[in-house]
Amino acid sequence: MSEDNQKKTPAQGVPLNEDNYTHNIRKFHERKLDRRSFLKTMVGAAGVFAVSTLPWGAIAAKHLAEGSKRVYPERVIGSAADLPVGEALEFAYPGEHDTALLVRLGDGEYKAYHNACTHLKCPVFWDKAEGDLLCPCHHGVFDVRTGRPKAGPPRRPLPEIELAVKQGTIYATGVKRYET
Amino acid sequence: MKRSYRGVVYLSLVLLLSIVCTQQVVNAFFYERYALTLVVAGLNVLLFPAALWLYRRERDAE
């Protein structure tokens, strides 16, 4: 094997046969994030945050221009005769993925809430024995009469659905404005 | 030249305000307080030129 061949494919760990050992030191990009780049990054981040709020502002302006009251469709949930006192019925309102829970508390007393737990959106169930709405994920408990959290991790009430009972049929007529 | 970190501190504060405003916009929108949403979103948009001005001032001082 000649000297030239050895130079092309050096053995592992054997230094190259050359005098200049500084060929792989690059000075130009030594300081990738200096003071000025850091400041630029912060300005850019502020810009990103500013731009990201624009859609929210635009939709809010649209809502303000259209009027404060949202209009919901009236939809049949079920018949009062099919729902005995103390029982619950799951339905979806206003969209097909907005699941909600209707509870019959008394003869003419109905309560309905969106049943996504305000903690981590687990479905909330009607606990008939305890008379509470129960989220089984982390044992969040909601008061069935007000929707307010009674125990567990949730801190915000469940959004309430407005109901109307006409001739033995229960209708969902809207979602109450969410207040805390 | 010994550098002053005042500009960096101010910019950090502006960026913190941006983050707080963004969060408040989302919260106000969720609670359907649309007027508040508009106000905070406007403030957030105004924070960007403020950050830019702080950056330019700091750059020119260097």
Automatic annotation (TrEMBL), chain A:
Top-rank taxon: Bacteria
UniProt-recorded Gene Ontology molecular function terms: 2 iron, 2 sulfur cluster binding; metal ion binding; monooxygenase activity; oxidoreductase activity, acting on paired donors, with incorporation or reduction of molecular oxygen
Keyword terms: 2Fe-2S, Disulfide bond, Iron, Iron-sulfur, Membrane, Metal-binding, Transmembrane, Transmembrane helix
Domain Rieske: 75-172
Pfam family, one: Rieske
Transmembrane segments: 37-59
Protein name: Nitrite reductase/ring-hydroxylating ferredoxin subunit
Protein source organism: Paenibacillus methanolicus
UniProtKB/TrEMBL annotation, chain B:
Transmembrane segments: 34-55
Record key words, sorted: Membrane, Transmembrane, Transmembrane helix
Protein name: Uncharacterized protein
Organism annotation: Paenibacillus methanolicus
